[in-house]
Amino acid sequence: MDPSSVLDQTIQDVSNLQAEFTHILGEIRASDTQLLDQRKKYMQKDSQIHKFIRQHGSLQEHPKEQELSEKIREKMSACKNLQEQKCTMANTALYLVAKHLSRLEKNIGLLEEDGLLAPVDEDADSSTEFSRESSSVSGTGERRRKAASSSSHEPSHVKRRRTGRASSPNQTAHTPSVPPPATSLSQPVASREDESHENTEGSPLPVVEKDVNFDLQDYNDDLFSGYNNNEEEDRTLYCFCQSVSYGEMVACDGPNCKYEWFHYSCVNLKEPPKGQWFCPDCRQEMAKDKLKKKKI
């Protein structure tokens, strides 16, 4: 075994890696599309129940609440299964990379033991390890890698001065040499009343530890995703007039009704109907079905 043969073997081993990754990522994307579709369906069912509660109060049960709840549970279970499939495919991609990397590191170790390859310098090894850790922690890519690189070459006296300033009573938070994006949510944060009480007594404010693994952008996306979804639900179009929800509305009991909810004025209603109620389109479809059955 020599370095050139190891290099050739490694290139040959990873030659199909791009095609495998393309297939895996395509499967994950397809699962994402299915998941969004399932999520949209159960959110629509859930909005029907909440709309009924807003109009009639929580004491009156939706006539199809049991059926809607069952469908919501089915859709959420399907979403869970899709998420598990995505995790399995992502782990498969990780395993493929780890397998080739482990084989390469093993061959490099054999070459070093045989004296065919010079051992990697300790400084270069530690620098590579630091670069690998910083790239895995980074959630925003180049921006944070530049920050880590610039701070790693910073003079030691500059770092000591910065740490000294952060430990003074006038500072409200600890400032490390490489600023992470946000504070960790797992750490307790003092309330405003506690901060004002400590300020009056002249004691230093608590130091809040920061988590380098926390990504502020991802947290903001998760935090406001529910708010954006509620806005989209309020803009859903109903009824023959294809308008948003307003005033009093009645739900059609037709299983395949394409509008589901109707404004009272659009269907000439002045009070809630008693028993089951079907929209004009559903009544017409039901009449057609009856005629077909009679002919048969």
TrEMBL record:
<dbReference type="InterPro" id="IPR019786">
    <property type="entry name" value="Zinc_finger_PHD-type_CS"/>
</dbReference>
<feature type="binding site">
    <location>
        <position position="252"/>
    </location>
    <ligand>
        <name>Zn(2+) 2</name>
    </ligand>
</feature>
<feature type="domain" description="PHD-type">
    <location>
        <begin position="236"/>
        <end position="285"/>
    </location>
</feature>
<feature type="compositionally biased region" description="Polar residues">
    <location>
        <begin position="165"/>
        <end position="175"/>
    </location>
</feature>
<dbReference type="InterPro" id="IPR001965">
    <property type="entry name" value="Znf_PHD"/>
</dbReference>
<comment type="subunit">
    <text>Component of an histone acetyltransferase complex. Interacts with H3K4me3 and to a lesser extent with H3K4me2.</text>
</comment>
<keyword id="KW-0156">Chromatin regulator</keyword>
<feature type="site" description="Histone H3K4me3 binding">
    <location>
        <position position="238"/>
    </location>
</feature>
<dbReference type="GO" id="GO:0000786">
    <property type="term" value="C:nucleosome"/>
</dbReference>
<dbReference type="GO" id="GO:0005634">
    <property type="term" value="C:nucleus"/>
</dbReference>
<dbReference type="GO" id="GO:0140002">
    <property type="term" value="F:histone H3K4me3 reader activity"/>
</dbReference>
<keyword id="KW-0479">Metal-binding</keyword>
<feature type="binding site">
    <location>
        <position position="282"/>
    </location>
    <ligand>
        <name>Zn(2+) 2</name>
    </ligand>
</feature>
<feature type="site" description="Histone H3K4me3 binding">
    <location>
        <position position="253"/>
    </location>
</feature>
<keyword id="KW-0863">Zinc-finger</keyword>
<feature type="binding site">
    <location>
        <position position="257"/>
    </location>
    <ligand>
        <name>Zn(2+) 2</name>
    </ligand>
</feature>
<feature type="binding site">
    <location>
        <position position="239"/>
    </location>
    <ligand>
        <name>Zn(2+) 1</name>
    </ligand>
</feature>
<feature type="compositionally biased region" description="Low complexity">
    <location>
        <begin position="127"/>
        <end position="140"/>
    </location>
</feature>
<dbReference type="Pfam" id="PF00628">
    <property type="entry name" value="PHD"/>
</dbReference>
<dbReference type="GO" id="GO:0035267">
    <property type="term" value="C:NuA4 histone acetyltransferase complex"/>
</dbReference>
<dbReference type="InterPro" id="IPR019787">
    <property type="entry name" value="Znf_PHD-finger"/>
</dbReference>
<dbReference type="InterPro" id="IPR024610">
    <property type="entry name" value="ING_N_histone-binding"/>
</dbReference>
<keyword id="KW-0131">Cell cycle</keyword>
<dbReference type="GO" id="GO:0006281">
    <property type="term" value="P:DNA repair"/>
</dbReference>
<dbReference type="GO" id="GO:0004402">
    <property type="term" value="F:histone acetyltransferase activity"/>
</dbReference>
<protein>
    <recommendedName>
        <fullName>Chromatin modification-related protein</fullName>
    </recommendedName>
</protein>
<comment type="function">
    <text>Component of an histone acetyltransferase complex.</text>
</comment>
<dbReference type="InterPro" id="IPR028651">
    <property type="entry name" value="ING_fam"/>
</dbReference>
<dbReference type="GO" id="GO:0005829">
    <property type="term" value="C:cytosol"/>
</dbReference>
<keyword id="KW-0862">Zinc</keyword>
<feature type="binding site">
    <location>
        <position position="241"/>
    </location>
    <ligand>
        <name>Zn(2+) 1</name>
    </ligand>
</feature>
<feature type="site" description="Histone H3K4me3 binding">
    <location>
        <position position="249"/>
    </location>
</feature>
<comment type="similarity">
    <text>Belongs to the ING family.</text>
</comment>
<dbReference type="InterPro" id="IPR011011">
    <property type="entry name" value="Znf_FYVE_PHD"/>
</dbReference>
<keyword id="KW-0234">DNA repair</keyword>
<keyword id="KW-0469">Meiosis</keyword>
<dbReference type="InterPro" id="IPR013083">
    <property type="entry name" value="Znf_RING/FYVE/PHD"/>
</dbReference>
<feature type="compositionally biased region" description="Basic and acidic residues">
    <location>
        <begin position="191"/>
        <end position="200"/>
    </location>
</feature>
<feature type="binding site">
    <location>
        <position position="263"/>
    </location>
    <ligand>
        <name>Zn(2+) 1</name>
    </ligand>
</feature>
<feature type="binding site">
    <location>
        <position position="266"/>
    </location>
    <ligand>
        <name>Zn(2+) 1</name>
    </ligand>
</feature>
<dbReference type="GO" id="GO:0051321">
    <property type="term" value="P:meiotic cell cycle"/>
</dbReference>
<feature type="region of interest" description="Disordered">
    <location>
        <begin position="122"/>
        <end position="209"/>
    </location>
</feature>
